[in-house]
Amino acid sequence: MARFKVEIQRPLCISCESCVNICPEFWEMAPDGFSHLKGSKEAGKNEEREVDDVSCNNDAAENCPATCIHVYDNGKRII
Question: ∠ CA(36), CA(60), CA(15), 5° rounding?
């Protein structure tokens, strides 16, 4: 089981592309114009992905103007 989980609350996304510019390894713009977490699974209206290395996702979450990206460490939300 991966140590970290990255989540996006897609209904809150404002399509600014900040996450894509900061962390293109994990983020892209979906055809509907909102951010998509590559390799994620749907969790209701959100998307989530487990990762062993949080990589640039901390920066993406910290710089998201809509604060819709969250990072969890062993189940505890850190961003």
Answer: 45
